[in-house]
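Exercise 4. Each item below gives a protein and its sequence. For each, produce the structure-token representation.

Item: Septation protein IspZ (Pseudonocardia alaniniphila).
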Amino acid sequence: MLQHRITVHLPSIGSLIRHAGTPLLESTLVPLALFWVLFTQAGFDAGLFAALGWSALAISRRLVLRRRLPAVLLISTGLLIARTAIGLWTGSAFFYFLQPTVQNFVFALALLLTLGFERPLLAKLADDFCPFPEALTGHPRIKRFFKRVSLLWAFVFLVNGATTLCVLATQTVGNYLVVSTAGSYTMVVMGIALSLWWFRRSLAGEGIRLRIGAAPAVV
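Answer:
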């Protein structure tokens, strides 16, 4: 049986959830909730500006406090600017939500195109959700893992895109938000669970053991 040669310590589960949840709230959940509230209370344009205003505020706050800007926040804000422009130009909620639906296909393509990079896109985005130590991210087997798991997430986004496109074409805006949000996050949670299992298996194959919640170890 292979003996563990390296032990890598990660923060506690609560700390990891807080670290991962902040970018998710900032870039996705809060803008979506603000859009829906203002859309139902004050109209379509108000919903557009509320979502975009939140993202601008989140970026400005981090700049003022000199905090790192998560890649997911920058990407989502850039895409939200384009969505808002399309929404204002067309005045259509369908076209406003069509873009994030199409983004699933674009993101899947981006994951595949960056497979040849030293660190693919998925590895860089993972830094926003879990701060891995350098000894781990630089390991050859972990680099191979991120390239391979990128294929899994490309599949997740393709399926998610196809599903939300179908819902958008057949349901009202309210139903679309409920169904697509629940469905999307179910897919994401399943993808995360499978990725974590695969990640631990990859580490075990190299004699690397993960410990969560303990003090950092000297590798």
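Check: The CA atoms of residues 31 and 51 lie 4 Å apart.
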